[in-house]
Structures are given as structure tokens and as C-alpha cells.
Amino acid sequence: IALRRVSKYFRESTDLSILTRLFVPPIREPWNLGTGMKVLLLLSIFKYGLWLTGMTMFDLMNMATRTGNIVLVILVGILFPIDWFMSILAPYIITYVLVMSITHSEKALNFLAKHVTRLVSRDLSYSVANFILKGSTRLYRVSFVIALIIAVTTTYIGMSSSLGAWIGSFVEKIQEIGSSTGAPIFLLSALFEGQIASYRMTAYISIFLAVLGSIIITLVLLTDMDKELAVLRARGAGLRDLGRFVYGVVFTVLIMSISVGLLSGFIWLRGSLSSVSSGIGIGFLSENIPKPAMVFTLNDLLYLCIIFGILFLSPLVIIMFSQRYPVAEKLRSLV
Question: In angstroms, what CA-CA distances link 228 with 121, 146, 234, 335?
């Protein structure tokens, strides 16, 4: 029933989907950071700086305490709730700003056209860059959604593998400490095992999100590329030329989104592991407790490749639907 309704919808609809309306307006809008977004961006950069250096707010508080400056201690104390809030919000802010900065930068898109898109589109690479530069706002929002899916997947799949590789040595060590302190070893082990399972489950949901992302890319580009594909067909372009143009756009969008998502995700993962290490050190007041290291298994890498492959399936659907109508009829409908 679902397949019949979807096929009927594609045959009859010109606006294609309610999903595309989630990314309105369909025209390109100038992008500027408001005052509130600038403040959040500065706080996000501060949070990412802590994650990159492996520091936490507890480390800053220890440094402030050693100085004996009460004002500095109070300021760091005020930053604690802000830091917790930015731990949740910073990945989204940084990912969004990076994607929007690249997609609205002529220099960045021309660089991609020259060094990346040319691998797929060849002489059509700069046409691809121009299409993206003057593209719709919803295309940029789709890029952000894809980057966010990659960032979340990288973080959660990395956390599950890293904690899974670390939990054995951790339990062994706290058994030594627990024998003299009476620490609830079973409860601690069960807590981390539960966290690992929740991280893994969240990472598996990314398969569904990748399929949804591929559908959204298809629906948005089917609408936005309608005119360009019709003009190419009118000029005598064959399936190979249409494929080069479509794959050039999708390749550029996905390479940019995947790169931003991986960068943001790895920093997010590093910060999450640092938070676990800091909490363990404070909880046990011992430097001999093993700290979790960043670990990715071969299965994790294969899983990420599967997600990338799902996202790259959308051009085939776009090319197929671009051939639905005779080119003369399509051009008349666009006038």
C-alpha cells in the first residue's frame, strides 16, 4: 500500500513532497549570524577548545583553585551550568555554522569544483558549483541534516566501541579498589554496560536516518534541479551528461557534509571520552584508574561506509525521474 501511494504521489505531484516543505523557503536567502547565534557560536568554540585539549571544567576549577583567586573560582563556577548546556548544543551549532559557511562561500565551492567535483563532473564541475552557490535554502539545510547524521553516528558508534574496549580493564581495576573501599562494582559495571548498549542502539538508528536523508536529498534536488536538467536535455545531453551533473551536485554536497560531520563528530567523541575520564578520576580519587581511549573497530568503519553508500544512492532516483516527461513538454511547463 505504501509503495503504491508513493508511486502515485510521484506521478501526480509537482511539488513532490511535504518533506521538501520542511526546508522552505525554496529560494536562496542571505545567511547572516544574528547576535544570539554569535554568542552561542563563541560558547561552542570555547567548548570545542576544551574538547580538543582534553580538558574539562573540573580541570579549570582545579587550576583556578591553585591560583587562590576567589574571583576566578567564582567565574569558573558560573561557567559550569553553561558548560553542561553547551555540551549538548555545541555540536549542532558548530556543524550548522561550518555547513552554512561553506555553502555560502564562492571560494570554498570553487575550490571543491576544482579539486573534488571535477573527479565526477569533469567539464561540468563549475556549473555544479554555480548551481549550489545560487541554490535554495532547503538544499543548505539538507546539507546540515546530513552532516549532523554523520556527526551523531561517529560520536555514538565511537563511544560504544571505545567504552566496550575499556570496560574490561576498568572493572578489573575497580575490583582491586572495591575490595578495600566497598565500592558497588556490579552496579558500576552494569551502568557502563547499559551506556554502551544505548550508544550502540542510537548508532544503529543512523541507518534509518541515512535512508531518510537520502530520500530528502532526492526530493529536494528533484525540485531544485528540474530546470537545469530540462535545459541539459534540450541541449542534447544524454544520460551520461545528466549523471555527471547530478552526481556532481550530490557528490559535492555529501563530501562537504560528510567531512564536516566527521570533523565535528571526532571532536565531540574526544570530549565525551574526556568527560568520562574526568568523572572516573573524581569518583575514585585515583590516577591509576585506566582511562578510555578512542577506538574504532573494522565493523564500525564498515557501518559508516554502508551509511555513506545509502546517501550516494539518491542520484540514480533523480536521473530516473528526470526522464519521466518529453523534454519539449517539460520546457513548456517551466516557462
Answer: 15, 23, 10, 13
DSSP string, 17-69: -HHHHTT--SS-------HHHHHHHHHHHHHHHHHHHT--HHHHHHHHHHHT-
C-alpha cell, 59: 580541570
* Three-class HEC string of 72-141: HHHHHHHHHHHHHHHHHHHHHHHHHHHHHHHHCCHHHHHHHHHHHHHHHHHHHHHHHHHHHHCCCHHHHH
* Non-local CB neighbours of 277 within 8 Å, separated by 6+ positions: 291, 292
Amino acid residing at 47: K
User: Which residues are CB-neighbours of 225 under 8 A, at least 6 positions away?
Assistant: 131, 245, 246, 249, 318, 322
- Report the C-alpha gap between 50 and 45 in whole angstroms: 9
35/247 Cα distance (integer angstroms):
37
Mean pLDDT, the chain, integer: 75
Whole-number Cα distances in Å, 204 to 31, 160, 301, 307: 33, 11, 13, 10
CB 252 within 8 A of CB 119: no
**pLDDT tens digit string along 199-253?**
878 777 877 877 777 777 777 777 777 777 777 777 776 777 777 778 788 888 8
State the pTM of this model: 0.77
Distance from C-alpha of 89 to C-alpha of 239, rounded to nearest angstrom: 43
Cβ contact 210:310 at 8 Å: yes
Grid cell 551509511 — which residue?
307
Cβ-proximal residues to 266 (8 Å cutoff; 6+ apart), any chain? 154, 158
Q: Which residue in 29, 149, 25, 44 sits closest to 88, CA to CA? A: 44
